[in-house]
Amino acid sequence: MARRCGLLRLNPLNMGGRAEGEDLYPKVDLSNVAAWYRHLVQANPQENASLLDSLRLTLDAFQFFAAGADG
After folding, report:
1. Which region, left, alpha or beta, applies to residue 50 given φ > 0 means left and ψ of -120 to 50 means alpha?
2. Between the CA of residue 59 and those of 21, 42, 54, what are the distances in Å?
3. Which domain holds residue 45?
4. Is there a domain that residue 62 lies in?
5. 9-34 burial, b if ≥16 CB within 10 A, otherwise e?
6. Is residue 35, in this structure, part of any structural domain at all?
7. Is residue 27 part of a domain?
8. Whole-angstrom Cα distance, residue 22 to residue 12?
9. pTM, full prediction
């Protein structure tokens, strides 16, 4: 399976905290992070724990994503 690498330019002010649906791909500024994450969790639930561990290692103060009907 081929893996691709992308370049992202994080802009926290544009990031939405809720997702009404799923996005298959992230936008360059990650403004759709909630919708993209929702897709990733549903498409690859077994890899979610690894993703969260990686985020904890790379992002100061990261704890968790709340994913569910209310968040």
Report:
1. alpha
2. 25, 23, 8
3. 18-52
4. no
5. eeeeeeeeeebeebbeebbeebbbbb
6. yes
7. yes
8. 19
9. 0.63
Q: What angle do CA 41, 71, 11 make, to 5 degrees?
A: 80
In a domain, 6, yes or no: no
Compute the distance between CA of residue 12 and CA of residue 68 in angstroms, rounded to an integer: 21
Which residues of 1-71 form beta strands (DSSP E)?
A: none
Q: pLDDT: is 9 or 69 the higher one?
A: 9
Whether the pLDDT of residue 16 is over 80: the answer is: no
Q: Which tokens go with 65?
A: 């994503």
CA distance 45 to 41: 5
pLDDT score, position 68: 52
Mean pLDDT of 39-61: 86
Of 66, 58, 70, give the one whose Cα is nearest residue 33.
66
Neighbours of 61 (CB within 10 A): 5
Q: How many domains does the chain have?
A: 1
